[in-house]
User: What shape does this take?
Amino acid sequence: MRYPITRSPNYDFKGQSYADTFPNLHRYPATMPPQIGIAILQEFGIHQGTMLDPYCGSGSSFIAGLMCGLKHFAGYDLNPLAVLITRAKYTWLDKRDIAQARQMLKQRVRTYLAHPPANLADIRLHNANYWFAGDVLAALQIIYHALRELPDEAIQTLFLVPFSEILRACSYTRSSEFKLYRLAPKDIASFNVDPVYSYFQKLDWVIAAYESYYLPYLQDIQLQLKLETFRTSKAKYDVVLTSPPYGDSQTTVAYGQFSVFINEWLGISHARQIDKLLMGGKKADELYQDGVLVSPIARIASMSFQRALQVSAFYKDLATSINEVARAITPGGFAIYLVGNRTVKGVQLPTDQFIAEQFERHGFKHCVTYERALSNKVMPNRNSPSNQIGITAPTMSKEYLVVCQKDTADD
Ligand SMILES: C[S@@+](CC[C@H](N)C(=O)[O-])C[C@H]1O[C@@H](n2cnc3c(N)ncnc32)[C@H](O)[C@@H]1O
Assistant: This one.
């Protein structure tokens, strides 16, 4: 092992969940509990500067930054749902405007339920009737129509968060899975939801969580969010705090599939292709044979060349991304990555070592790698759902928090 690993129970947050600090406004797969980010920023005395998260997901790194005094943030993600949740969480809104909009929405939904408007937009869900009952779809259409009539776009964004959440909850998909699996016929026969009641109940919860946990910190912050893969430009960042995917989406966490209903509803034409666009989604045409990965990838190739190509694609993309990220960090700045070392064909892939090695090649020094145990309560979030129903993981029980610092003389 080239880069030493320090076992740190301080980072386990045993028995705690995400919600123990800042409840997420929307369920999202493989979230990083904000406690981890807060603790590592404090340990390295990072209290100012600009933070980048190149795989921001639902934006948990930014709350860690906010709690430590940072005010400038940039987030990138290819999943529209991720960008929607993050934008909703970190956009400042006036409480009175929220209350007024909620009232207006309630009234309009009531009116439209009695007299549906003639100009309802078409439902853009693929196979809608396979996943939803007809009356449920009609009610969802009315809620969405009324929501889109709200005058303020930022309020629409916040109000779309509970809409997305109930879209899944009102469908015939199993709520315990990240991927889409239809309920058994007997469960569909007894499936009974009230979309309007569910929506307003969820909306009230989201508003309360947003106002109590996020709003107090948002007044003077700047957040730049992009629905794209991070590429370096003129902008520079003092700290990168991120949790990249464990592997390609198709064999680890299917972020795209998890988000497909809301992404389609919002008119994202490539909603069903997102998992292929994420890191490692396109098959490599040669093995990744470099540094710490040479031996593990060769061992996987000896059992399945195709699988080794799939794994290679992911690390090739990760190396490209680190190249971009490294160039964007200011001299003396930090790269903090929370990663899992997943196992493929019985071979463990040393992603923590890979991250340190890559950053070192770009003029960084490895500061520390902490090993943390995933506690039961936190684990389901970070666990990789496999392709089989009900099977939630080739169980990952540890994560690694890798911290590297850019040379001060660099650039
Ligand atoms: C582990 S999740 C991040 C979770 C986040 N820390 C949170 O707490 O919600 C990884 C994220 O990387 C995104 N992602 C994967 N490949 C990407 C790429 N090439 N460009 C941008 N984002 C990508 C996925 O959509 C997913 O949201």
Q: What stands out?
A: The pocket of S-adenosylmethionine is lined by residues 28, 30-32, 55, 57-58, 60-61, 76-79, 82, 229, 243-245, 255, 278-279 (CB under 6 Å).
